[in-house]
Amino acid sequence: MDAAIACLQRYGLEKTGMSDIAAAAGVTKPTIYTYFASRDELLHSALDRAGRALGERLIANSRDFSTPAEQVVEAVLFALREIPNEPGLAVTSASEADGFGSRAALRPASLAIARQVLGELFTDRPDLLEDVDEVAEILIRWMLSLLVLDGPAPRDESELRSLLHRRMIPGLGLDASERSTG
Questions:
Q1: Which terminus has fewer CB within 10 Å in the chain: N or C?
Q2: Are 72 and 172 in contact (CB under 8 A)?
Q3: Which residue stretches of the chain have pLDDT < 70?
């Protein structure tokens, strides 16, 4: 999977082939096919591993905030900062909106990672987890949109934070007025 991520970074998502990955790993293509049925399966596994690692860092970062609304907004901002620099995940942000990266973003494994992150953040608020599947999907869709599509005007992080509090938080059914005072 490390070789797959290295190839993704070097060649891009669409041009990475099993031959490239095998050469980078120092093995033969049949050896890779012993473990993975296809290129997409291998790439999905590599992306899932990278996503889980990012999820752990995201949870650690978001625990510094006191309200669910702030935790979600700061989690999105953290992901937006980290994904373009994360080996294996940066390719999803650079992908065409209809490409492999966007298809991988809403796979069951990706949704499971998002559900796990939300579950970790809201352990004290089980009421916020009633619609966790929908919330996970919406959060991924928001992040993918913010990563892939240029907005009408550039926003700095403070402006984006404000936008997320005004528009995303109410849409997720969270209390938009819940912001810490410190």
A1: C
A2: yes
A3: 87-88, 90-104, 178-182
Tell me the Ramachandran region of residue 116: left when phi exceeds 0, alpha when psi lies from -120 to 50, beta otherwise: alpha
> Rounded to whole angstroms, how far apart are CA atoms 15 and 69?
39
pTM of the predicted protein model: 0.76
Query: What confidence score (pLDDT) does residue 106 get?
Result: 76
Residue 146 in tokens: 């913010």
d(CA 18, CA 29): 6
Tell me how far apart the alpha carbons of residues 93 and 123 are, in angstroms, rounded to a whole number. 29
> What domains can be seen in the chain, in order of their start residue?
39-171 (1.10.357)
Residue whose token pair is 């509090």? 165
Over the chain, what HEC string results?
A: CHHHHHHHHHHCCCCCCHHHHHHHHCCCHHHHHHHCCCHHHHHHHHHHHHHHHHHHHHHHHHCCCCCHHHHHHHHHHHHHHHHHHCCCCHHHHHCCCCCHHHHHHCCHHHHHHHHHHHHHHCCCCHHHHCCHHHHHHHHHHHHHHHHHCCCCCCCCHHHHHHHHHHHHHHHCCCCCCCCCCC
Task: State how far the Cα of 16 lies from the Cα of 98, in Å rounded to an integer.
Answer: 17
What's the angle, vertex CA 54, arms to CA 160 and CA 147, rounded to 5? 35
Whole-number Å distance between alpha carbons of 175 and 169: 7
